[in-house]
Amino acid sequence: MDIHDETPSEAARDESDLARFGYKQELRRSLGVFSSFAVAFSYISPSTGIFALFALGLTTIGGVFIWSWPIVALGQFCIALGFAELSSHFPVAGSVFQWTKYLSGKTYAWFAGWIYLFAGILTITSVCVTLPLALIPAFNNMGWNMANSLHNQRLVAAVTLVAITVLNVFGVKLVAIVNNTGVLFEILGMVVFAFVLALFHHHQPASVIVHTGGTSLTTGTFLIAMFMSLFVIYGFDTAGTLAEETRDPRRESPKAILASIAGAFVIGGIFLYACLLAIPNLNDAIKGGFGPAQIIDANFGNAFSTVFLLVVAAAIFVCCLAIQTSTIRLAFGMSRDDRLPGSKHLSKVHPTLHTPIVACIAIGVLSAIPMLQYAGAGIVAIAATGMIYLSYFVGNVSLLRARLKGWPRVKAPFSLGKWGLPLNVLALAWGGGMLVNFAWPRAATNPTPTQTGLGLNFHWNWLNHRPVLWTVLVVILLVGGIYYAAVQRTKPAHLQAPEG
To answer: What is the pLDDT of residues 234-257, one digit of tens each?
Structure first.
């Protein structure tokens, strides 16, 4: 399972390395490269995003939507390469917050961390509320007769949130065991389903990937169809966030970051193509809004569809777990520098469990708040994904500024060398373009509360006619700006960095 504590000599090496940044070893180093990869892969979780938004891509531009998968993967891989280099230079908990702190200073890093913290919280919520979309139909197929209502979805999501919070309280070893097992099932499940569909239920020609099925293919519709891929391929930096719990993180974290995105691309791509091949009738699938569950049900019937739903539910659960683990480590990293309200308590690590228990509970509680205004998984996913891409963009701006000033001056075990600057520019161009795509006001991907028709109500008529992502971002930045000006602005910075 690749989960065991370090030898005394390994521990001394990694503790000494961490001490150079001004921190003492409090979290337990028990993750090897596979476990670190597995947590990042679980955060990406191709089966989660494909299950949730396959229908959006298919109904928008037919089989052509699959081309968004390699485009998004390539764009995100440019970002991942830069983050891999950063994780090799700065192997400390907090990813984007820590990296920008050493590259751009206190104020910039604080806002980068604040945005990323709430992006993580919203992502936890969005994936928790995605779980019942697979679990409730699976229960019903087994005779439970549970209504797939917003109330029941919220109830299942709340139970999921409590469960992953308890698991995170009891330590990264337990999280890694659950996570590694879940990743193996997800990979094997997706590959097995893909090959069975492609070999025995091949209804569409290989050219289905260039068929629109009567839909309208334009630049605008392709950008909408990209949202499935955009919702899947992020979170790879989690391997860097867990650096203080990874053995030899300067070498292993970059490997895990890049392997997670490459693995998700290959596994997800195979499954997507197999699903398209297995559609009995493309036009009917588009009209019916088919997702993978409906495609499998159409080919195998109820029993096989139930197995698929249970595999997806397990994958979504470990995805929830990985996202919360990552967000907790970010909160811990920021509070250790006294950068959050209640930092003294949030940064306290339990001496036996080696976990920041208060931070675990706080992230769990904050992730429950969006459920009070729950109007469907898709609405939460819009805000969560847009905020994540903004966080990555902010991190890449900081990285570009540092590169233009001569960073890195010291070579780390993973280095992009002369390719660092052009890849950084490509990452910014990609990220900036996708931010415009996310922020664009349209009913399909960034609706106003009134356009959702699902009861979302911000209790202010003017806000109810503004796009959801705009409102969420402005509120988070406004609250953060007030807090920073009132509390954080005059606090000294923790900027002990052993290398430039």
So the answer is: 999 988 888 888 889 999 999 999
| Predicted model pTM | 0.92
CA-closest candidate to residue 466, choices 493, 484, 485, 439: 439
**Nearest by Cα to 30 from 256, 315, 354, 321:** 354
Tokens of 338: 């006294």
**Residue 34 Cα distances to 327, 394, 434, angstroms:** 20, 29, 30
Cβ burial, residue 476 (10 Å; 0-12/13-18/19+):
buried
Per-residue DSSP letters for 116-177?
Answer: HHHHHHHHHHHHHTTHHHHHHHHHHHTT------HHHHHHHHHHHHHHHHHHHHT-HHHHHH
**Token duo for residue 426:** 């490509």
Both tokens of residue 220?
A: 């605008």
Distance separating alpha carbons of residues 80 and 252, to the nearest angstrom:
14
- Amino acid in the structure at residue 441: P
Do the beta carbons of residue 72 and residue 230 sit within 8 Å? yes
Tokens 């990264």 belong to 172
Give the torsion sign (CA, 99, 102, 108, 109): positive
Give pairs for 297-304: CB < 8 Å, separation 24+.
299/197, 299/201, 300/201, 302/141, 303/141
Per-residue pLDDT of 262-303, as tens digits, reads 999 999 999 999 999 999 999 999 999 999 989 988 898 888
Give CA–CA dist 287/44, Å, rounded: 29
- Tell me which DSSP letter residue 280 carries: S
Over range 387-397, report the average pLDDT. 95
User: Exposed e or buried b for every residue in 146-174, given b needs 16+ CB within 10 A?
Assistant: eeeebeebbebbbebbeebbebbbebbbb
Q: How far is CA 453 from CA 381, 456, 471, in A?
A: 16, 8, 17
Q: How far apart are the first and last CA of the chain?
A: 36
Which residues make Cβ contacts (< 8 Å) with residue 151, sequence separation at least 6? none
Supply the DSSP string of 287-311, one letter for each residue: HHT--HHHHHHHHH-HHHHHHHHHH
